[in-house]
Amino acid sequence: MTYGPLPDTDLTRHRRLREQGSLDRADLDAILDAGFVCHLGVIVDGRPMVVPTVYGRGERDLYVHGSVASRSLAGDAPVCVTVTHVDGLVLARSVFEHGVNYRSAMIHGVPRKVTDPDEKTEALRLLTEHAAPGQWDYARAPSRKELAATTVLALSLDVASVKIRTGAPDDGDGPDAALGLWAGTLPLTATWGAPVPDPLLPSGQPVPDHVARREGTRHG
Amino acid sequence: MTYGPLPDTDLTRHRRLREQGSLDRADLDAILDAGFVCHLGVIVDGRPMVVPTVYGRGERDLYVHGSVASRSLAGDAPVCVTVTHVDGLVLARSVFEHGVNYRSAMIHGVPRKVTDPDEKTEALRLLTEHAAPGQWDYARAPSRKELAATTVLALSLDVASVKIRTGAPDDGDGPDAALGLWAGTLPLTATWGAPVPDPLLPSGQPVPDHVARREGTRHG
What we know:
Two copies of one chain form a homodimer.
Chain A: E1 19-22, H1 25-33, E2 37-44, E3 47-54, E4 56-57, E5 61-65, H2 67-72, E6 79-91, E7 99-109, E8 112-113, H3 117-131, H4 135-138, H5 144-149, E9 152-156, E10 160-165, E11 184-192, E12 196-197, H6 209-212, E13 218-219
Antiparallel strand pairs in A: 1-10, 2-3, 2-6, 4-5, 5-9, 6-7, 6-11, 7-10, 8-9, 11-13
């Protein structure tokens, strides 16, 4: 795996031991697999545009779909996809040392339009299962017409960078420790709630197991 | 307030009544105030780069700070800042109608470097209080040297767009309703956890009220 230069993500101003890049493909996969919404950066009329969109991860590619794909990415234009999980606030003794615990992956490349029907179907399966495991087999599959109306782009995972910050503030052994202030982290956790039935459902329609069992589980 | 064209955010493929843009400044402020990490899009060497970073909101500007600011945004380069809250999955009867409930704000412009020391201090106060209310007065304030080492950029809130999707799937009154499948939404909520003290703190150091009272509260 070839990594580009690690960008300075600015979630904290200082890169120390607790904030570091990773060259481990497993770290990249873990960050991608923990989410389902990315921020896709494209250049439109010479200006950057950052659009939230869903994605799925394959072995070699990240897949995105839909109208952004078809409209903004018609040519051989470079894109950047960033996935970020915010794990909490880092509350230091000084304002200057405040920061965020997070995991972030950034993927760079020129996406490839998926034209092979089998790969397209598999990409949509990955996209669906990524966000909603079990739904691909449960819900009605895309028709031929729906497939044709969907643009799917594949972005190689070859050029990517990962940054992770974990743990306590960095000023616990500096002069500010003498201030006698509390310091630490405030964790942030995303949790799936109880399924909300569509009001148009007939009463008594049971929630399928693959949906019901996510309630109360952690996301991210 | 002047809004640019509403981008098609692709979080769902179809824009119907449940997914719409807003021209209300209050909606923009609410989305910005509910978060503290944005995705900043810049163009570096002709390629888009999307970087997660913290922000603060003023009356007229969004503020970001730090090394990304100083490195990537030296010139009069256009940027795009996007803030997204994912509120849940939309589980429809057909795969094609699956989507995401979300609130997203996108701000476009050429940022201004903040040079006035008072505005810079106020911007850092907003940044700090935005993420960690109460910390600006509690923690040690930035020294003159720290202030000088910090680049702060202001991005006007004048050109922005907001998109929000809420509610049930869109196929409850279509032909797929006859499939007899469960459909609805699966909410996702971020919650602040219990404060984790820095292991280097002396034992018995009390957690300040403004930190302790966030435990169990919703974020986003």
